[in-house]
Here is the input.
Amino acid sequence: MSAPKNAIPTPNGWIHEKTGELLKSQKLTSTFIAAWHGVTELTEVVPAPTPAPKPRVTKPKVQTLREAPAAEREVQEEEKSWHDSPAVFAPQELKED
Here is the structure.
């Protein structure tokens, strides 16, 4: 098998030795990779134990108010009289025939 120039075999294919760029995607066996590096006897690699997952802490979701808050202000006398006028409650009475 011919290898790309300046390439190192990995299980995913051939990568460039300096940049780590994948040059050729190819499934390579561990025995082939070991033979390429000159290792005659393979040792079994035992993966390190994974740490226990941390408990997830979730923050309470804050509800966003999407309307303007009511502003408290004093009602002026002029506004009171306008709302109390009959034109507000019965505008049809103001029409001239």
